[in-house]
Specification:
271 residues; Arc Repressor Mutant, subunit A; 2 domains; 5-stranded antiparallel sheet; two-stranded antiparallel ribbon; 12 helices; globular
Length: 271
């Protein structure tokens, strides 16, 4: 464990016999990520906490994470940092089906800079870049897809703005080294929520007119989290939470929190 003053860089074994030299700041962030990954968080909470620290670790600006729904053949259960709900809904309804990079990245079971599958000068000429990525300022990306026995159980999509440089092989090694712990944490989180209804608000958000964030809040209310817990997990204030809850009630026709789980259960029975 690092305490007090430590050497400026340390050698950290990442993959096989390869090593990566880390600064003190990088080492402390990685240890913090590993501590989080050994804790008890729900599936979205795992991805959000790792995502925020990955942004700090990799000097990046934007984060999104999805889970692949093999039956529906689409990405669901979004977690995001510094991206807009409207833009993410356009991804979920349109751009994920017209995405020139993610299907290739998804088949790679290691962290991969986007420029390894499509040169940046080609990417910037696509509709995907100009009408989706650049609307929120995303420019240089790197993806990591977590797998459990062949199933894609979650991903990390990390992006930098145009004022930064592209990701490097060193950056990818750092993410790959965290990968096995992320997989284990997602498996634990998935097991922990098995007792709750299989249907989630994130899956029916479009039908209800919920934003991505409203669906996240509704799903956290279903599993009984307190206001403080929800604000900590999603990174916003109580007034913002109350605004989301009011919108959830308005769009669903409900008026009490105690009705939300029953409402979701009824939707599940109608499927």
């Amino acid at each position: 464990m690092l305490t007090g003053h430590v050497v400026e860089t340390i050698e950290w074994f990442s993959i096989g016999t390869q090593t990566v030299n880390l600064t003190d700041e990088e080492a402390n962030l990685i240890f913090s990520i590993m501590r989080d990954l050994s804790g008890e968080f729900d599936h979205s909470g795992v991805r959000r906490r790792v995502g925020q620290k990955m942004l700090d670790l990799l000097k990046a600006d934007y984060f999104a994470s999805y889970v692949w729904d093999d039956d529906a053949q689409k990405f669901v259960s979004c977690v995001q940092i510094n991206m807009t709900d409207d833009n993410l809904r356009s991804y979920e309804s349109h751009f994920q089906f017209h995405d020139p990079i993610t299907p290739t990245l998804q088949r790679r079971k290691k962290a991969t800079p986007v420029s390894e599958v499509m040169r940046h000068d080609r990417l910037v000429n696509t509709e995907f870049f100009n009408d989706f990525l650049m609307r929120d300022g995303l420019c240089y990306g790197m993806n990591y897809f977590a797998y459990d026995r062949g199933d894609n159980i979650g991903d990390l999509r990390i992006w930098r703005g145009a004022n930064r440089e592209d990701f490097t092989p060193r950056d990818a090694k750092i993410v790959d080294a965290v990968g096995p712990s992320l997989v284990n944490a997602l498996i634990r989180a998935g097991s922990a929520i098995a007792q709750f209804p299989p249907l989630r608000f994130a899956q029916i958000a479009d039908d209800l007119g919920f934003t991505v964030r409203e669906a996240e809040v509704a799903d956290l209310l279903v599993i009984g989290l307190t206001d403080d817990d929800i604000c900590e997990k999603l990174g916003f204030s109580k007034p913002t939470l109350r605004s989301h809850i009011a919108s959830i009630f308005r769009k669903s026709g409900l008026n009490r929190r105690s009705q939300i789980a029953q409402f979701l259960s009824e939707q599940n029975h109608h499927l």
